[in-house]
Write a structure and sequence with these properties.
about 300 residues; Uridine Diphospho-n-acetylenolpyruvylglucosamine Reductase, domain 2; Enolase-like, domain 1; five-stranded antiparallel sheet; 13 strands; about 35% helix; about 25% strand
Length: about 300
């Protein structure tokens, strides 16, 4: 294993200073469930690991202007059990409940899962379907970017190493939204996913007004199936079998260069992605109604 310096800054500002120093390669360490494995395997070779464990200011879940704002150091266990998440973005709680094992969920963080850019990063899929936004901070600067744009930029090697994801902003699902999330692996718990799907559909007068479909663990990066989404627009509920089959056929054309490895073949991943979306379109779930005035910081 490559030697590296290990630092534990006591403030976000101190962490950003280390990450922004161009004289060395520094990487942020959150839960470590992915990064430490990569360091030991020599996949990444940072000169400095910046441990964020003491940055409690990045650990929160609160309501902010019709969005649920989640600090990047918030763990998947906290997301799973949080009442705000469960009520207003339930598919995120559903994802967290199936993430790894209970022990891993207490360590893995939302920001770390996104920043790892793993092909099977579970959290990215529902966050894509929820049209989430990321807050990036660096020494003396902060900016917001849609998660979908971040994925595109990362694939183009345009990510900024000196920046830190500090917050994820998730729009609250409206009362006329329907949702679904599911993940498939070779076993029920602590398995590398073969395919996952998250769907958010808003309806007006029993017709689909907007559709967002995100899939993960099938292609080299999680994706929004925008062409499949377009098939569903203005369709009435319940969806006709012909409409669903057309949607699935279009989806297959969007799943380019599917992963092919020891976990699952490319063909099987595509097949399971289509199967999960079919299940989603037959089993859409309503958002639990509630009074927004009761929203409060947790």
């Amino acid at each position: 294993m490559v030697e590296f310096e290990y630092v534990t800054p006591s403030s976000l500002e101190a962490a950003l200073q280390v990450l922004g120093d161009a004289s060395h390669t520094a990487m942020a360490l959150a839960g470590g469930t992915r990064l430490l494995i990569d360091v030991r395997a020599g996949v990444v070779q940072p000169a400095i690991l910046v441990d964020l464990r003491h940055l409690d200011t990045l650990e929160y879940i609160r309501f902010d202007d019709h969005c649920v704002a989640i600090g990047a150091r918030t763990t998947l266990a906290q997301i799973e059990m949080n009442p705000l998440i469960q009520r207003y973005v339930p598919l995120l709680a559903e994802m967290a409940s199936s993430f790894g094992s209970p022990l891993i969920r207490t360590s893995a963080t939302l920001g770390g899962n996104i920043a790892s850019f793993a092909q099977v990063a579970d959290a990215v899929v529902p966050l894509l379907a929820l049209d989430s936004t990321l807050l990036f901070q660096s020494a003396g600067n902060r900016r917001r970017q849609q998660l979908s744009a971040f994925i595109t930029d990362h694939r183009r090697a345009a990510a900024h190493a000196h920046e830190l994801i500090t917050e994820v902003s998730v729009p609250v699902l409206p009362g006329n939204a329907l949702w679904f999330y599911a993940k498939l692996g070779n076993r029920k718990a602590n398995a590398i996913p073969i395919a996952s799907v998250a769907t958010v559909i808003t309806i007006q007068s029993q017709r689909i007004q907007e559709a967002r479909i995100a899939l993960g663990a099938i292609t080299p990066a999680p994706l929004r199936a925008t062409h499949a989404e377009a098939v569903l627009l203005n369709e009435s509920l319940p969806l006709r079998d012909q409409t669903i089959e057309h949607c699935l056929a279009v989806l297959a054309t969007e799943l380019q260069d599917p992963l092919d490895d020891m976990v699952a073949s490319a063909g099987y991943r595509v097949l399971m992605g289509k199967a999960l979306l079919r299940k989603a379109l037959y089993h859409l779930r309503p958002v639990e109604q509630g009074d927004n005035k009761k929203m409060r910081e947790e």
